[in-house]
Amino acid sequence: MAVELAESPVTKANLLNNVAVALRLMFTATRSASPIEEAVLAYEQAVALVADGHANKPLFLNNLANAHLSHYEVSSEIRDLEKALTAVEAAMLLNPEADPQRVDRLSTLGQIHYTMFLRSHERAGIDKAISSLQAAVDLAPDGYLKKSGFLTNLGNAYQKRFDHFGDVSDIRKGIEVLWSITHLTPDDHPEKHLQLGTLGGAYQSLFTHTQDLSDLGQAISLKQRAADLCVYDDYNKMKHLNNLANALQIHSQIHSGQIGDSSGMTAALAMRRKAVQIAPAGTLIENSVLLSNLAGVLEENFEHTLNLPDIEDAISIQEKAVEQTPISHADRPVRLAILANAYRLKFLHTSKLAESEKAIDIMDHVLAAVPRNHPRMVSFLQILGTALDNQFEQTGHLAESDRAVNVLEQAVELSEKGSMDAIFSMSNLGVALDHRFQHIMNISDIDRALVHKQTALSLIPQTHKHLAKILSNLGISYLLRYDRLHNPADIEEAIEYQKFAVEKTDVGSAQMATSLSNLGTAYQTHYQHAQEVTYLQEAISCYQRAIASSLDDATNLAIHLNNHGAACLEYAKHTGLLSYLDEAINSLEKAVGLVPDGHAMKPAYLGNLANAHFHYYQKDDTQYSHAETGIELMTHAVQLTPEHHARKVECYHDLGNKFFVQYQHTLDKNDLHFAIVYHHAAATAFTGSIATRFAAAKMWAHCAFQDSSLHDECLEAYSWACSLLPKLIWLGQNMTEQYRQILSLQDFVNEAASIAIMLNKLDTAVEWLEQGRSIVWNQLLQLRAHYEELDEQYPELAKELRSAAQALEKESISQSNANIAQSSVFLHEAAAHHHQLAERWEYLLREVQAKPGFHTFLKPKSFRDIHSACKNGPVIMVNVHRLRCDALILVSGQESVVHVALENFTSHMGSEMQHALHGVILQTEVQMRETRQSRQAKLISASGQPKHSLRAILAILWHHVAQPIIQALGLQCLPDEQKAHCWWCVTGPLAMLPIHAAGLYDGHSPSDQVSSYMVSSYTPTLASLTASLHAEASEFKGLLMIAQPQTPGQPPLYFAAEEQSVVMRHMDACHTLNHYLSGSAATIEAVLDGLSTCSWVHMACHGTQNLLEPTKSAFCLHDGSLELSALITKSIPHAELAILSACQTATGAANLSEEAVHLAAGMLFAGFKSVIATMWSIRDEDAPIIVEEVYSYLCKDNRPHGSKSALALHVAVNRLREEIGVMDDAALLAWVPFIHVGL
User: How far apart are CA 625 and CA 616, in angstroms?
Assistant: First the structure.
């Protein structure tokens, strides 16, 4: 009324200003929108009523600016801030520089820029805010009433700049500013609680940088004091409680690893609830913040306790928070994201897809509404990605997994390096990659998962509440990789990480059950590998504890029950205890009952229950109902498994096994038919475990062999299994892993060849034996193949393939020599790179094979292709298997295979002789090159001990193997020059036995010895022999001789110098350019340089063999070991002959007998066509005798004849035999070990 009665505009303006001030005070008390809206209107009218030159105009404009700023608190509309900025800038223009009220304008300007920054997050905004606020502080005199508020605002601005841009000097300046005013303000001052609260917030921000718990403690203390001092101001009390709850939550998260520490979370939850209760009725925006924060605590509490009412309350409260947040409000997307995450968490508990779909739908809307550079974009992507991944776990829809991975990849890309966002993004991406790997078994997924999880683990603070989850997830990835690559080291890593996860998990938390269950899985996998029952007992104990911790959580309880049931089943199988079988069925039935048919894990649970029932039948075939139940359950599991899911293969294979077991009891052809159908389906699947597909192919073959009308299908099945060998023994693995996989094959190839021979498919038997020999060397040789035709027709593709081959070969060798001291992240990245190169190679190879005329490119050679290996003489392949033993001989000019059934020789006999020979070598310690005198002393010392006879071994080999073969070939005793040159390509235990020396050495005629009929050579594979035959002859480039009479760390070789003299005499007579390196001159570098220019190399030195990692086998030189890895990467363009007068250069590994794991084979791979080597160590003084005869023959007419190396060795050994005799083991041990390998 007074306003209306005022006559002058100025008076009216003053009255309007006073009314507006009153309305602002009302707004401050009620936080209702209407008072501040009326205040803005009154200020606008006051401003309009006075001229620009009037003294009050700047004051009215400044008040209007503050009113707009207050209105923004309820509207969240940018136009309020824009109007505020316009008003204060107009006031600044009207204020002289010296006007004492200018400080108020500067403060208002700073607060407007600060508020605009909170919306835009642009650096220029906060810089302007600090500049204006600092100017206000500088201009305000010390006694000015508002200066404390200016300082508080300035400190707050420094904190926000630090929070967003990370310059620690900002937060330290902010704290300094805030302390400067807080120290001077008494506790009863009305603004003291605001100062304390702001200072507490600054210390909390500092803690994010320092991770110093004293900073967090200071924050909590200051915020607690602020809340205590704020007695009559509900609005600010609400804020203090909310802020204190924030700090307590952080403290709780950090200390969650400490057993029983949940007090911080409980206190935070109580404060959140109280803040909501005391919030003024009109504070809709602030109330929505409080509600959202309360919902966040409830979500976090649910993750810890899995108490369903917590997440239901969180959803209800967050929905209210969203309702109270205007659509245009900057925080609405965040509130929606919190709501979506609550639905996601509830879905994990209830498995109701509607909740997961709700979460995904909300996040899709959020991401559609916000810009790419939104400050919370990483969090939004994480929530959507994990929701998609969680849903995929239940539905098995691959599109959901692909999208989850894509979304989480974006989150990783957008995360600030080293931040918590980056840590959780990488961890979540790793989990999603795990899940996709389980579906499609793509090795790159598990590689990437390990790298991301290891990186996350390396970054996360060791006290963080989610450390246990990240550790446990990392352990899972190791187990998944073990399932694919079967490296036992992965199991050890998994157990260590899972044990650490259990240690770091709060006993009362929901994570404990998961950590225990995952540890149990690691122990169970270790049992499956090592068959040590203690690991299975540990697994069962872990599962029991997990079940006890999950009784209120149906989804996770089903997982733990399933794991427990599967472990009890294995324990029942191991011990024969039916009580454990009953327990297994009980747990598995409960697990199956807890999940619906649409759940992705239902088929796995059904499969385990099927296995348990069927084991009852296997224990007692009168329990036929259990067999029917088992088959029915497994059939249901097959039906529920998506068509291209990796687990489908396991289901098919298990079902096939059940039908075959039933067939063995019933002899019902229908059972056999279904066994074949399901094993065929598993073997020929395009996804799933290679090991399972290979096992299924073998079972397919076994089943088909039972029916004489299906023998063609039996051969098809074996052929399919052989085609899987390159995928099972994968180029993407290092050599140690490859050889470990080969061990798992046992005698598969020999079995397949035996069946082919039984079915009179001799050509096929030869092809399969070739495919199963020296698999690792052959794969590396493929990488060195020539592409002349491909170069002509598809030059770009040839170039790509060659580049991929070179990179893969380099990586394969470097991985075998990797330094285990490197960091886990580095090693995983290196292994992943190796896998990527192998996949790239395979992809390009498929591209080539799809081209017209190239469908057989680098595929296993056909019989016609490898038959040419016998061009220069018969090639004798001997297959040894428990079913039968046979010789398959390729003869030049004869298209068909000469078959010799070795009816009086068995696999068992071969193994006994292999062990007998090993005993002879151990008893006489024939493991190092030494003198005759020391060797004789050892023989005398061993003579009193029970020992096997080498002479007896050679006699058995003659009677049961060599003699039938010689008779079948019709060989005659002829002069050495006229003898047939034959190549032995033997399998199984024969590969460790000296078949070339088989004969009778007890006074019989020489006609009862192999050497009387042939010149013997060995070949690791027919392909290597064929390659040498077809290789172009090169000009002789001389000899490289390495002689090491004295090698640091090795026994002396007394006759090495004499050996060198013999070689020099013969080679110098050939007038060729030869290099002789001896003693300190024989360094690694000098030898490698010499190899690049020579045709022959002679190594008179010690050698070492590494049976598991053959590229680490080495020759001992003056300055270290020259490893095979260095030799095979060296270009030796003129390589022809290698003479290895060193220790055990052709001694293979008994358990890898057909892999040629020795230095001699390595030299063939390095490029040499022929190698003279020894099966065990020789006597030192025998070397010059052999060398004299070998070089006399090789250098006839003073010209080098490397192609006659086999005959040269044959003649030389005969000369040694003449000198030392052949009647006793001492003599036999001296000359028998010399062998020729290659062309």
Answer: 9
Q: What value does the mean pLDDT take over residues 683-689?
A: 88
Please give the angle made by the CA atoms of 974, 975 and 978, to the nearest 5 degrees: 80
> Which of 409, 415, 447 lies closest to 429 in space, CA to CA?
409
Overall average pLDDT of the 784-795 stretch: 88
Read off the pLDDT of each residue in 1053-1069 and give the average, rounded to a whole number: 90
Judged by DSSP in three states, 523 sits in helix
Tokens at residue 1036, please?
A: 């002789």
pLDDT digit string (tens) for 1091-1142? 888 999 999 988 888 766 777 888 899 999 988 878 877 778 889 999 998 7
- Tell which residue, 322, 319, 312, has the closest CA to residue 347: 312
Statement: residue 1 has pLDDT above 70? no
Q: Which residues contact 490 (CB under 8 A, 6 or more apart)?
A: 478, 479, 481, 482
Q: Which residue has the tokens 């805030």?
A: 178
Q: In this structure, is the dihedral angle defined by the CA atoms of residues 1141, 1142, 1143 and 1145, taken in order, positive or negative?
A: negative
Q: 953, 1228 in Cβ contact below 8 A?
A: no
pLDDT interval class at 997 (50, 70, 90)? very high
Contacts of 789 (CB under 8 A, 6+ apart): 853, 854
C-alpha to C-alpha distances, 262 to 221, 253, 255, 1175, nearest whole angstrom: 19, 9, 8, 69
SS3 for 39?
helix
Query: CB-based contacts of 358: which residues, under 8 Å, 6+ apart?
Result: 340, 343
Q: Is the distance from CB of 478 to CB of 726 less than 8 angstroms? A: no
Q: What angle do CA 599, 605, 606 make, to 5 degrees?
A: 100
Token pair listed for 226: 């602020």
User: Quick one: tokens of 419?
Assistant: 């931040």
Question: Around Cβ 1215, how many Cβ atoms within 10 Å?
Answer: 16
> What's residue 820's pLDDT?
45
Compute the distance between CA of residue 369 and CA of residue 391 in angstroms, rounded to an integer: 23
CB-based contacts of 620, cutoff 8 Å, min separation 6: none
Beta bridge partners of 1114: 1104, 1123
Other beta carbons within 10 angstroms of residue 946's beta carbon come to: 7
Residues 6+ apart with CB under 8 A from 948: 916, 917, 919, 920
- Are 927 and 1144 within 8 A, CB to CB? yes
More confident residue, 1217 or 932: 1217
Q: Count CA atoms within 13 Å of residue 1179 on its CB side.
A: 22
> 3-class SS at 801?
helix
Per DSSP, the three-state class of 890 is: strand
pTM higher than the cut 0.85: no
Q: Using CA atoms, how far apart are residues 752 and 774, in angstroms rounded to an integer?
A: 17
* Gap between the Cα atoms of 1130 and 1114, Å rounded: 14
Q: Rounded to an integer, what distance in angstroms lies between the CA atom of residue 829 and that of residue 807?
A: 16
DSSP category for residue 435? H
- The DSSP code sequence of 583-649 is HHHHHHHHHHHHS-TTSTTHHHHHHHHHHHHHHHHHH-TT-HHHHHHHHHHHHHHHHHS-TT-HHHH
What span, in angstroms and rounded, lies between the C-alpha atoms of 152 and 137? 10
Rounded CA-CA distance 678/700 in Å is: 8
Burial class (CB in 10 A: 0-12, 13-18, 19+), 899: middle
Residues 6 or more apart whose CB falls under 8 angstroms from that of 471 comprise: 457, 497, 498, 500, 501, 504
How would you write 1068-1127 as a 3-class SS string? HHCCCCCEEEEHHHCCHHHHHHHHCCCCEEEEECCEECCCCCHHHCEEEECCEEEEHHHH
Q: Which helix (H) or strand (E) holds 1042?
A: strand 1039-1043
**Helix, strand, or coil (residue 893):** coil
Q: Give Dmax (Cα) for the chain.
A: 147
